[in-house]
């Protein structure tokens, strides 16, 4: 699989995770497990992208 496709996919995962983190954090009662899940997905995708 070409490296560019994997990099684009990782960037999309990061963007989606950051967007969902923002949306979930705006709720009055925060679902902390969901919030931590989106943050951790973004962190893992970022680590794969930087290696």
Would you write up a description of this structure?
With 51 residues, the protein is an all-alpha fold. The chain is built from 2 helices and no strands. The protein has helices at residues 3-25, 32-50. The longest helix has 23 residues, at 3-25. The radius of gyration is 12 Å and the shape is elongated. It starts with a helix and ends with a helix. The mean pLDDT is 95.
Which key features would you list for this structure?
mainly alpha; 2 helices; 51 residues; 82% helix; elongated
What low-confidence regions span 5 or more consecutive residues with pLDDT below 50? none
Broad structural category: mainly alpha
Average predicted local confidence, pLDDT = 95
Strand content: under 5%
The helix/strand order is HH
What fraction, in percent, of the residue positions are helical? over 70%
Q: Major beta sheet, specifics? A: none
Note the total helix count: 2
Distance between the termini: 16 Å
Characterize the overall form. Answer: elongated
Q: Give me the Rg, rounded.
A: 12 Å
- Count of β-strands: 0
Keywords: Membrane, Transmembrane, Transmembrane helix
Summarize the structure.
Keywords: Membrane, Transmembrane, Transmembrane helix. The chain crosses the membrane at residues 6-25, 32-50. With 51 residues, this protein is mainly α.
């Amino acid at each position: 699989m070409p490296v560019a496709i994997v990099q684009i996919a990782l960037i999309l995962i990061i963007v989606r995770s950051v967007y969902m983190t923002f949306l979930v954090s705006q709720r009055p009662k925060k679902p902390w497990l969901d919030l931590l899940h989106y943050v951790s997905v973004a962190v893992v995708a970022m680590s794969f992208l930087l290696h």
